[in-house]
Each structure stands twice: as C-alpha cells, then as structure tokens.
Amino acid sequence: MKYIILLLFLIAFNGCxxxxxxxxxxxxxxxxxxxxGKNLVGYDxxxxxxxxxxxxxxxxxxxxxxxxxxxxxxxxxxxQWKDLGNGQVELIYDDGGFVRSGDGGSANVDARATITxxxxxxxxxxxxxxxxx
Length: 133
What we know:
Layout: H1 2-33, E1 44-47, E2 55-59, E3 64-69, E4 75-85, E5 88-93, E6 98-100, E7 106-108, E8 112-119, E9 122-125, E10 128-132
Antiparallel strand pairs: 1-2, 1-10, 2-3, 3-4, 4-5, 5-8, 6-7, 8-9, 9-10
C-alpha cells in the first residue's frame, strides 16, 4: 500500500512539474519571437537608413514618442503610443492632426495612426518601413 501511494504521488508531482515547465517554455518562446511595443523603446528608428536620413522616431518607456522628418522643410510631431498586441502599436499625436513645417507651411494630417511591427528591428507605417539603429 505504501508503494502505491508513493507511486501515485510521484506521477502527480511529475505531471505538475512538466506542465509548469511547458507553460514557461511557451511563454518564453512567445516573448522572444513576437515583437511588441516595448521593443520600440530605447532605439532610434530611421528611414531609409542612418546615412541618408529622411525621418527618425524615438519611443520612450513612459508611452510617449517623437518623430522628425526632413521633407517639406522638416517637422516634428510628438504623442503617445499604445501597444495593441499582435504586432500593432497605436500612435496618438499631440497636435491633433495640424502640423506646421519648418518652411512656414502647415497641413492637416491624421491625428492617429497604427504601426505594424514586422520584427524586433523593423516597423511599417503606411508603405514606409523604418529600421532600428
């Protein structure tokens, strides 16, 4: 009888340990392969590259960002970012969609946008792909 109880205990214990190990492994695999908003923080994100820079993004851990671009006299926009999951990050611009350029012009543009994280080193906004540096 003592051996039967010991055998049942060992089977139950082994099942618990294996189940917990499998769950941790799955969580670690998802964390290491799926890009998320936190992968944006602490890097410069540029288009097309650092040598011929046309636009640059910077994301902060407090959920804010800024982007500067050179086209049309240059402009800078700021706002908040929110990780939506599934490789999507929502951008909410502080300017409400009204932008003044460095050459004195202005334009009405989208006040919100969604970027798609293609990997931990690339994201796409519209048809433009930005790279991490």
